[in-house]
Amino acid sequence: MCSHFWLQLTFLAECIGISLSSTSNFILFLMILETPRKKFGSYKYLMLSFAALGIFYSCGNFITKPNVILTKTSFAVFTELGNYGLTKGIGTIVVSCSASIYGLMLSLLCVQFYYRFIAVTSPMTLSTKFTLKTSPIYIILVFSNTATWGLVSYYLNGPTPEKDRELAPAFISLYCLAPGEYSYIGAKFFNLTETNERVYHFQPFIGTACSAFVLLATFSIAAYLGMRTYRSLKNLGTSQAHKELQNQLF
């Protein structure tokens, strides 16, 4: 029997999440904003962008309220259209943008790790590697990664008539949602024939591989820079107070 319970639970969780995240990130934003630039240098603006993006990410999740649905041959991330009166096409864009925001957070995390790596291993070059002139490079890299998440979600994992037919019964039986009440992005990996044989589709595997590659590359870069920074802190002859300050950020 279908139920709206999990959708209502998601709404409650998003309400709690946006309240806690927005409040804490807003306080952090104000504290960083009042800190003199001489104390943190360019790192101040990087942390400001992180705090602002944290609020933006929470707001995006609250608007989208993403949920997951699974079937034997596919899965999808969806949003209810009735929350804001969206059309199915706009709803698909909204869910894809939610994936983009996630990619944006990961990309900015890599930039933060790179900044700290340079600050520890080659602090004299910070004034040349993180300036107004070099900022377009980081902006392009961050938004290229962000766009990849969104485009892969929309074009390779977007809705199709075949996915609609596969998912419609599941939406009705699980969430009491008719086809016009939700939008989704997802992958249908194979069909089952009458003899229960699998006929695979290549497009969802390509989309999943692209997302997995970007995710793995982002985490690998962050992990590599983090380990290099940590090892450098152990080897450098810096003060104990400076080491403790840097170690607290891991």
UniProtKB/TrEMBL annotation:
Xref: InterPro entries: 7TM_GPCR_serpentine_rcpt_Str (IPR019428)
Record key words, sorted: Membrane, Transmembrane, Transmembrane helix
TM stretches of this protein: 6-33, 45-63, 93-115, 135-155, 205-225
Pfam name, any one: 7TM_GPCR_Str
The UniProt record lists the keyword Membrane: yes
GO biological process, one term: olfactory behavior
Entry keyword tRNA-binding: no
GO molecular function: G protein-coupled olfactory receptor activity
GO CC terms: plasma membrane
PANTHER family reported in the protein's UniProt record: 7-TRANSMEMBRANE DOMAIN RECEPTOR C.ELEGANS, SEVEN TM RECEPTOR
Protein name: GMT
